[in-house]
Amino acid sequence: MALNIMHVDMDAFYAAVEQMDNPELKGKPVIVGGISNRGVVSTASYEARKYGVHSAMPIAEAKRLCPHGIFLPGRHERYSEVSRQIFAILYQYTPIVEKVSIDEAFLDLTGCSRLFGNSIQIGRRIKADIYNKFGLTASIGLASNKFLAKLASDMEKPDGFFVIEEKDIDRILEPLDVGKIWGVGKRTAEILKSKGIDTIGRLKTLTIEELETLLGKNGVRLYYLSRGIDNRRVEVNNPVKSISHEETFAEDISDRNLILASLLRMSIKVSRRLRKAGLVGNTIEVKIRYGDFTTYTRSISISVGTNQTDIIYQKAIYLLEKNKLLNRPIRLLGVGVSNLSPEGPEQLSLFENNLKMEKLAKTIDLIRDKFGETSVIRARNLDDFKSR
Ligand code: TTP
Ligand code: MG
Fold first, then answer.
1. pLDDT in tens, 105-133
2. Which atom of ligand 1 has the smallest separation from the CA of 103?
3. For an engineered disulfide with 60, which of 37, 116, 140, 167 has Cβ 3.0 to 4.6 Å away?
4. Contact at 8 Å (CB) between 204 and 227?
5. Is 10 in the pocket of ligand 1 (CB under 6 A)?
């Protein structure tokens, strides 16, 4: 079993963002929550947790436990903004990201290793990317499924990095409290504890039938989870809506060959990003801006989704010509693909020719990954490349 599933969870997220924006708060007990004494704590920095302060605790109680704490009302827009930037880092590694909450996500890393190394290397890189960009720490768990990955990210929090390998599952799971199992709330834990079952190890002494009698369907689920078995997929719930590229020229240009060369260069970039993400798009769009800043976008839909450079390029030329957009000097040119869906077998098998194009494109991607962006250049882009 591969370690393909990653769970990322930011540490003391709201409080850590407050400390990032105001370095004077670093190392201090920061408590984010309601403005009045009647609210509850959203989160507390690890310095405040030492005093027993935790999420959902009444502010009044937190003040009793930690009177010298720094109480802040919370700035949700700011936390969302930082969250978006953190997710942008995650999407650089794979499009298969399931957002669980503002500071938490699952990633399926299957297929990422060719570009970024094995899962452990990717996990280390993501942690470093987040730290280098924000000074924030994330806890990361790696395992073969979502249940284990989430347990793993919690094992060494804060600033954790924990891997649950197949051979260690029983040893790690058995001593844990049953409450650690996903979906075991207070009530289920009470029922289990009334039967003397406090740890996952003890839970494993019950047969699947006994668990079903005790807890119904949920009992069956617990039977499998307690053995580290979880078949849930990482569900992409925040998909990229379009992939595009645009360039502003140093001077307005009207030379048709130059325009087409840069259109081709952008089509290559867009198609490559689509292929990397395993996506195809059914709408192709061009954007053009003239010297006086008037801007036009035009799009066309195609019946079979594509990530092929030539199709994107040809449709973009068609759009520019049909709409007579090339009759004035151009300041900015862009090309994009939207209406995206995962690449399926139909793209591969539609035409034999298509299949060859697909193979060619993937081979070129491989060569570029290995030897650099300029290792394979189209004839049309050659002059353009030499002059740069
Ligand atoms: P969590 O990830 O549960 O908590 P955390 O990031 O503060 O701390 P850690 O992961 O290190 O244990 O939640 C993320 C954010 O969601 C948290 O910073 C604040 C918010 N939140 C609430 O507003 N109320 C709550 O009850 C919880 C649990 C979280
Ligand atoms: Mg968190």
1. 999 998 888 788 999 999 999 999 999 99
2. 14
3. 37
4. yes
5. yes
